[in-house]
Automatic annotation (TrEMBL), chain A:
FAD dependent oxidoreductase domain segment(s): 4-351
Protein's recorded name: Glycerol-3-phosphate dehydrogenase
Residue ranges occupied by any BFD-like [2Fe-2S]-binding domain in the UniProt entry: 400-451
Organism, as annotated: Georgenia soli
Classification via Gene3D superfamilies: BFD-like [2Fe-2S]-binding domain (1.10.10.1100), D-Amino Acid Oxidase, subunit A, domain 2 (3.30.9.10), FAD/NAD(P)-binding domain (3.50.50.60)
UniProt xrefs under Pfam families: DAO (PF01266), Fer2_BFD (PF04324)
SUPFAM superfamilies xrefs: FAD-linked reductases, C-terminal domain, FAD/NAD(P)-binding domain
Automatic annotation (TrEMBL), chain B:
FAD/NAD(P)-binding domain boundaries: 7-301
InterPro entries reported for this sequence: FAD/NAD-bd_sf, FAD/NAD-binding_dom, Metab_Enz_Cyan_OpOx_G3PDH
Protein name as it appears in the record: Thioredoxin reductase
Transmembrane spans: none
Amino acid sequence: MTYDITIVGAGVVGTAIARALSRYDLNVALLDAANDVGQGTSKANTAILHTGFDAKPGTLESRLVRRGYQLLADYAARTGIPLERTGAVLVAWTEEELANLPALQDKAVANGYENCQRLTAEEVYAAVPDLGPGALGGLSVPDESIICPWTPSIAYATEAVDNGATLLLEHEVRAVDVHPGGTTTLHTTQGPVTTRWLINAAGLGADVLDRALGHDRFTVTPRRGELLVFDKLARPLVNKIVLPVPSKLGKGVLVSPTVYGNVMLGPTAEDLDDKTATGTSEGGFEFLRTKGEKLMPVLFEEEVTTAYAGLRAAIDHGDYLIDTDPDQRYLLVGGIRSTGLTSSMAIAEHVESLLQDAGLTMTAKVEVADPPLMPNIGEHAPRPYERGDLIAQDPAFGEIVCFCERVTAGEIRDALTATVPAVDRAGVSKRTRATNGRCQGFYCGANVDACITKHLQGAPR
Amino acid sequence: MTTITTDVAIIGGGPAGLTAAATLAARTSVRVLVLEREHEAGGIPRHSDHLGYGVRDKHTFTTGPRYARRLVDEATDAGAQLLTKTMVTSWGEQNGLNITSPRGRDRVEAKAVILATGARERPRPARMIPGGRPAGVLTTGELQNKVHLYHQEVGTRAVVIGAELVSWSAVMTLKEAGCRTELLVTQHARPESYAAFNLGGRAMFRTSVATRSRVTQVLGCTRVTGVEIEDLTTGRRRVVECDTVVFTGDWIPDHELARTAGITLDRGTRGPLVDSIGRTNRPGIFAAGNLVHPVDTADIAALGGAHVARAVEKHLNGATFPSGGAVPILARAPFKWVTPGLYEPGLPAPARGRLETWVTDHVRAPRVTVRQGGRTIARRSLPWPASPGRVFRIPWDLLKDVDPSGGPVELTL
């Protein structure tokens, strides 16, 4: 079997590309080393759907973020990906930051975003009453939104599979051979995969794969971001995304509500060498505590529900690095940093046009699957445990297994039997939020594990 | 949606809730409904499969599961109705409760509500311990659930964080699961649990205890490979290899419903602020058990449930209790918390006639001082030591000279 196109990397970008290409008469394969989609950079981010107001004007990133915002917002509405338009407030804490606000507003306009408004200190506190003292003013970004970072990859992959794409998980690419005859062989941990076209969406590993194809154009530096997630009972404190004024070091530490009803603080930004260093650190916690206690002192009277670290793929290049090599039938999608969640569908659209430009014959399928309806794990709409209609049809939706997150036996069963199923506890957590709550499994961990074991024993793999 | 009406709704079918239900149902004709979110009622003792239960309330010495079954039987035999797999998810109007169960989404209306939602251990993230996020990191609650209810495997070598009673309970469970405990780690200069138990525990399990130490990092990517421990005296750090880490103690009440009801919480316990008969500041809502003393043993929680049940009975009979002139009882270091947190003149003493407190430091010969308005109103030496990791009890009569208009009462050692 030779695939027409193989995408390496089933993160939010790779799955979005697979989804887009699965709508054509092409044999598409999507490969990942992990046992689930969205397990790398996509798993751990700040979960914001960016308007792109602060991108660098004129860049590909600026264009794709802006376009991606619309595409993903529309897709979320169709599929049930949790999304809430909370708006953001950018807060200036120093005179220098205050002086920067007009330039930021101009930049937003240059990025095609015209809804920012300057705010006085009083207006900032009216918007976020529990903010710590000392804010001098701010800028509103009314369309900045919060989104579930996990459901998009799962939705994209589901739609791709529904349209006939092949999902090859636990396939780690070890070597690549580009053959003169028009095919490429990827040597994976589960044997060779042969393809006509190769798309590199390998995130943190994109530079390594790029070099394996004989290029030397960029280096990915894993930039670690640590985040603290506070208890749901803290949610009334934070109704908007509270952004710092960006500096050269990045976007800085923000406080944000989450679509699951928590409050998040972070991220840190620390360049590392190790692409597997997804642990949290003493220094990171200390930094977040210091920053957080200034931003919102009352937050630290609340319980911390969880802490995590993600690695974003920072590259030595000012923009997304998306480039085709028609001779090798190879397309690189590299350097997609934290905005990749927002821009994912626009990147896929861009990739489609690049492939067409490169001469690939792309015929739209006569019939394509509807976008999948994803289970709701957000607090923006009724969850299954709140729906008498659903429980009446299926009592498993009334059997709450995870008390903190109110996840039902029906949802866990569905996660294990979905088109792109969960295969372990992490997968179930991502799809249902079970064990992600304040007790972290004290009450439900063993029960959730039992559901998984029961399913895996019952179902031949 | 069905509306279930009852006289008393008890949220939580653990020792406190079940005993409150049995007490009310046995003594009165009031309708009592216990709402339990687990498959089975009984609370934590269900999965604490070792001896030590029922001493003070049942005057017996039995295992957790047997004790749990007895409490369930007594409540149902007395006529209380028990709904399992039923979770109260929010409040409706006038103390109404919205519930979810496999039967659907229903509503409960009651004249009085007893919150008996218990307490749990803070998991690792709440303690802000950095490192990887590998599998094999548990609380005692999850460990016991795994081993005793689901018969799942745990690792082979464990480190237990904490050295209090529950920590030894974790060690016993690990042993039963075939997992050796390499080390217990405690910040205190000595293990918190009873001396006899420590000696017995160390001898029985051949486990050592690292005192004046803390865990600074969890190591491992997919599965735990070890923990980094810091000696608080020398600052030296070392790695202890293990595949399982159990975080024990560090209790927090399950106060979600109390908070969402707008009930005032006690800053020390983080449970509802109650007076000596278990009243919260919301009329008709009472609280009992480990929700108000995180945590004491199951038998004490049960006796607390019985105590509050008697107050609820009087409340339903229209008895008017004194209200409004409560004096706050404040815990000063080395006390971490005290409960009840309110002294209401004219009310009966709390359960067993004692204040319950928790200390942060070991005090071998404690001398309790009660002050009000800068004046010492009582002082007494108590013949039992105060030790972190277990409740320290203080006779309620130390408060007999409290001046109802004299402002907050302070408790020190």
